[in-house]
Design a protein that fits this description.
409 residues, alpha+beta, Naphthalene 1,2-dioxygenase Alpha Subunit, Chain A, domain 1, Rieske Iron-sulfur Protein, 2 domains, 8-stranded antiparallel sheet, 7-stranded antiparallel sheet, 11 helices, globular, Aromatic ring-hydroxylating dioxygenase subunit alpha, iron-sulfur, dioxygenase activity
């Protein structure tokens, strides 16, 4: 994935059409200088065919954030999830995370039905079969009645697992590139501090009655902030906003609007936890469905998973920074900052959530092509990625901006 950044030249209408098909890494406020086409059609937000294409080409070949180090802190800790309909179990074995298909090879029961727990051995809940860390079978009760044992089918199926910062990722696709390869050039947002410097504040879920792309597009654009988040989340003037567009995702940097008193208090808190910690808001969107937000001493992670053509589930976690050499006072301050940040994040997301049903309804009835402003160019980059990966054909007239007549409608 290209990591070099370069200034984007002024775009003519022809250049705009080319850029919309082949986005280039770039940084300098807004990359594009004129409005952009809405690449996806409204029907792409409710089509069963499109839904299946996205699952097959966007989600299954991807790394997925499934939990955090907080979920499996001690040896023997485990948690279970369902990932794209596949039951998985992630377990801490002597400080390393391992992921297994949560199905026993004996009689097909899930190994565990618990959401999380601790067990000294990797053991099936049904007949007590035990397994080694590599998935091979260990102790089998009354094993003499299973002779001869081939040793093959009796092994658990393992999946690739990787840890980045405080986050645990799993891939169901053995051909998936390594996580560090996929994370470039976005690694800075979680590699800035070791994983154990991040204290888990809270994790929660939303079930939205909208296509996952509706939520993704809303998350990466700042155009709606002034009208939707009037007193909860706004940026300083647009000349403070910077965009980067890469092959595998996008980055937004901005300065959050705050009162002088709030800014002074934030500086004081961060100085106690890590002097020099940047107050800049940084939003990293790793295509297609992972969002990492960093500001002052907080890290927010959000992932989106389609649950139907017109619904999705969002999982959100908030982490706050620990002091490098902790004291009772710094631990208290870390917890306090998490209790301040978490309700603020929930308020912003609730304000967005109130819009999603109306956006989905509009998508299902819209006769318009739509258009995208330069301030919303990260939406365009995301749509191009979806279109390219799903093999959608973009008509020539869609490579040009929407006409003034359509805008007036």
């Amino acid at each position: 994935m290209p990591g070099d950044l370069r200034r984007a030249p002024p775009l003519t209408m022809l250049g705009l059409a080319i850029a919309s098909i082949h986005p280039q890494p770039a940084s300098l406020m807004f990359v594009n200088k004129t409005k952009l086409p809405h690449v996806l059609l409204p029907e792409h937000y409710s089509s069963p065919t499109q839904h299946e294409l996205e699952l097959e080409r966007l989600f299954r070949p991807q790394w997925h954030w499934v939990g955090s180090l907080h979920d499996a802190r001690e040896d023997g800790d485990f948690f279970t999830r369902e990932l794209l309909g596949v039951p998985i179990l992630v377990r801490n074995h002597q400080g390393s995370c391992h992921c297994y298909l949560n199905v026993c090879p004996h009689r097909h029961s899930t190994l565990s039905s618990e959401r999380s727990g601790n067990c000294p051995t990797l053991k099936c809940q049904y007949h007590g079969w035990e397994f080694h860390v590599d998935g091979s079978s260990g102790r089998i009760p009354d094993a003499k009645h299973f002779r001869p044992m081939s040793g093959g089918p009796e092994c658990l199926k393992k999946f690739s697992v990787a840890v980045h910062g405080p986050l645990i990722f799993v891939s169901l696709d053995p051909s998936c590139p390594s996580l560090p390869d996929q994370f470039q050039p976005f690694a800075e947002v979680t590699s800035e501090f070791p994983g154990d410097r991040w204290a888990h504040a809270e994790t929660w879920h939303y079930d939205f009655p909208a296509n996952w792309k509706v939520v993704a597009e809303n998350t990466v654009e700042s155009y709606h902030l002034e009208s939707v988040h009037t007193d909860s989340f706004r940026f300083e003037p647009e000349d403070e906003i910077e965009h980067e567009i890469h092959e595998g995702g996008t980055i937004m940097r901005a300065t959050i609007h705050a009162t002088p008193r709030a800014r002074q208090f934030t500086r004081w808190v961060t100085s106690q936890l890590h002097p020099g910690c940047s107050p800049q808001y940084r939003m990293h969107h790793l295509f297609p469905h992972l969002f990492l937000m960093r500001t002052d001493a907080m890290l927010q992670a959000m992932t989106l998973m389609p649950t139907s053509t017109t619904s999705c589930r969002a999982t959100v976690s908030v982490f706050t920074l620990r002091r490098e050499h902790e004291t009772p006072w710094s631990r208290l301050l870390t917890r306090f900052w998490g209790r301040i940040k978490t309700p603020a994040v929930k308020k912003i997301l609730a304000e967005d959530a109130s819009l999603y049903p109306g956006i989905q309804t509009g998508m299902e009835h819209s006769p318009f092509k739509g258009c995208v402003s330069t301030r919303e160019e990260l939406v365009h980059a995301f749509q191009h990625h979806v279109s390219q990966k799903c093999g959608l054909s973009i008509e020539p007239d869609r490579a040009a901006a929407t006409s003034a007549e359509e805008l007036s409608q």
